[in-house]
Amino acid sequence: MRKKAVIFDMDGLMFDTETLGYQAQGELAEEMALPIAFDFDYYLKQVGRSDKDVMPELASDFGDAELAERFLRKMKKRQTDIASEQGLPIKKGLYDLLAFLKEEGVVCVVASSSRRREVSFYLELADISQYFRYQVCGDEVSFAKPDPEIFLSAWKPLDIPKEDCLILEDSLNGIRAAYDAGIEVIMIPDLIVPDDEAKAKTIAILPDLHAVMDWLKEK
């Protein structure tokens, strides 16, 4: 296997946190009587983006920046509460893939748009923190995906040529960021249906993380 490092997205890629987020936002939209028509399409616009990137749109839609900030803060807490109480949905093949990469000596890191607080929480809840050398999080970079900064920040400390690295993503913004970073990317679709752009900017589109392991074994 020629890849020496794999950079993992988190939300929608390792865990089904997007479904948790949609549930949490829906509950809060009703509780807080938000002045928007909250539905799945509205939530979908936030997928693959950082809080900092989403905030101006929410503030505009709500007509109140403080309300938008309070909504996002409450949503993160509600989402982690749901995961703690109901269990964290793990994406198919995650544990097998991580064990395989460890056995092969492949370095794994996380590059997530979520804040470090949430990234650490979910990795620990899933008991997989030990598989990752480090994490780069959305509150630690200046620009959110689709800007390539987060992937370049994750790649640089590896001291491994880009051609020996692989990014795993589920969102179109993540794919754009990986492509612009000059690092090969595989898409494992979650909520976003692959379009022509996704097909053009990825080296493969696979159904789950177990299929990623099979793909890597063949390389």
Automatic annotation (TrEMBL):
It holds the Pfam family HAD_2. InterPro entries: HAD-like_sf, HAD-SF_hydro_IA, HAD_2, HAD_sf, PGP-like_dom2. It comes from the Bacteria. This is Haloacid dehalogenase-like hydrolase. It comes from Trichococcus pasteurii.
